[in-house]
Amino acid sequence: MEILIAEDEKQIAGTLKKRFLEIGFHPMAVPNGEAALAAVEKIVFDVIILDWRMPKLSGLEVCKILREREIKAPIILLTALSDISNKVEALNAGADDYITKPFSFDELLARVNAVVRRFHSTTTELGFNNCTLNLVDHTLVKPNEIIKLSQKEYDLLKFFLKNKNSIVSKDQICQQAWGTKCSPLSNIVEVTIKNLRRKLESKTHKSYIRTIYGEGYIFFADEVLKH
Amino acid sequence: MEILIAEDEKQIAGTLKKRFLEIGFHPMAVPNGEAALAAVEKIVFDVIILDWRMPKLSGLEVCKILREREIKAPIILLTALSDISNKVEALNAGADDYITKPFSFDELLARVNAVVRRFHSTTTELGFNNCTLNLVDHTLVKPNEIIKLSQKEYDLLKFFLKNKNSIVSKDQICQQAWGTKCSPLSNIVEVTIKNLRRKLESKTHKSYIRTIYGEGYIFFADEVLKH
DNA sequence: TACAATTATGAAATTTTTTTCATCATATTT
DNA sequence: AAATATGATGAAAAAAATTTCATAATTGTA
């Protein structure tokens, strides 16, 4: 789980990072709003935690900018004030939750989990590297073009993205994308992989799908880096 | 906008209903949790507001039950206590927001709008009557069967659902579902409507799409009733 | 009721997607 | 390096989706 923490108070940032690390999350801490915006350009986060009061760019402003840029990841705002109008302002800026300092780590964790669970149950796109699979349109959104995927190509890519960076066997692929056992008489999987590879490839990024001889395939996607 | 308000304090319920009515929403007030569950069985709400403290079934319990039943509509819990652990409990139960009494109507409205806006930007299905259009699978989910829609049938139905109960011209349909002006030389729209009608029809419900001679079509869907 | 305009429909034609097949390329083992 | 197994690929075949077309049915109007 990739978490961005934008917080200028070093002690809070440090504690949060440490606690998230302990439970196996991947936190990244930045000290201001500009750094948060820069980080989001490069990395796909599962949740973004923004301190409201930061020098220059406030957490609220960062939140608004992220939503304008169509960043969909859930955002939680931290604030010293428990003013109710702040809460409304935060929601209107596109935040998903709001938490007042001081707070316990367990409370923050509960909110992070709630917000992420909800997000994953309703998300409409899956990102990888500098591309996105649009689950509603069934299109592959590359940096400079939008490519229509056929049904099978879509099913296959979706399966790869759910299992990125780990080996999947041909049997597993058949089961998920074709709903049947893999027939040794047919090579539909190979053919569809060939076609998907062609649609995925670009000048900068040639090989998303690596063949593991005798085992299956791995879809390589930097979980983290967007560019 | 269909809003369910489950609140046993009659005065609060009455005021909320009145205020929502004034701004053109369609509120329905019920006095307890059981009635709320029953209402959700029959009606598709855009947002559900639950009082935490209600006789027998609490708002929190109703919330959990609704999520178990895969009701996706956003839920806001009302409570007299501003205890932070309650907020965590609410989120863990699948609620989207939490508001402590006393609150102003404007604050509630802001939260309703925030929660609905977010929901609509990430929703993965559109409901109508006793059916659902699954936007990810491109399937039509009827009470007893799941029907695969072709791309064009899907585009057409999606357009109808976005414009239900109002006349849409053939030109509008072409523009949205085919991305081109309607050619007088082609009757693709009529043909696709014919095919969609066939897939939509059931023993109980024959005519979703009514033709308005010389004007276009209306897709009739009870905005409200599920059964 | 007759007529013109509009919509509905079955079936053919076209296009696209999916699958099969033959052949080539590559990896592993000996 | 040779033999064998596995995967890749272009092209053909089959199936499915989309569009066209001819004709039938329906609606509104004279």
Q: Would you give an account of this structure?
A:
- Two copies of one chain form a homodimer.
- Chain A is an alpha/beta fold and 227 residues long.
- Chain A has two domains: 121 residues, 3-Layer(aba) Sandwich (Rossmann fold), CATH 3.40.50.2300; 95 residues, Orthogonal Bundle (Arc Repressor Mutant, subunit A).
- Helices cover 41% and strands 21% of the residues of chain A.
- The first copy, chain A, is built from eight helices and twelve strands.
- In chain A, the strands form three sheets. Chain A has a five-stranded parallel sheet with strand order 2-1-3-4-5, with helices on both faces. Chain A has a four-stranded antiparallel sheet with strand order 6-7-8-9, covered by helices on one side. A three-stranded antiparallel sheet of chain A has the order 10-12-11.
- In chain A, a hairpin with a 2-residue loop joins strand 6 and strand 7.
- In chain A, helix 2 packs parallel to helix 3.
- Chain A starts with a strand and ends in an 8-residue tail after the last strand.
- In chain A, 32% of the residues are buried.
- The C terminus of chain A is likely disordered.
- At the A-B interface, helix 4 and helix 5 of A face helix 4 and helix 5 of B.
- The structure holds a DNA duplex (30 and 30 nucleotides).
Properties at a glance:
8 helices, Arc Repressor Mutant, subunit A, 2 domains, 12 strands, Rossmann fold, 4-stranded antiparallel β-sheet, alpha/beta, 227 residues, disordered C terminus, homodimer, DNA-binding, 41% helix, elongated, 5-stranded parallel β-sheet
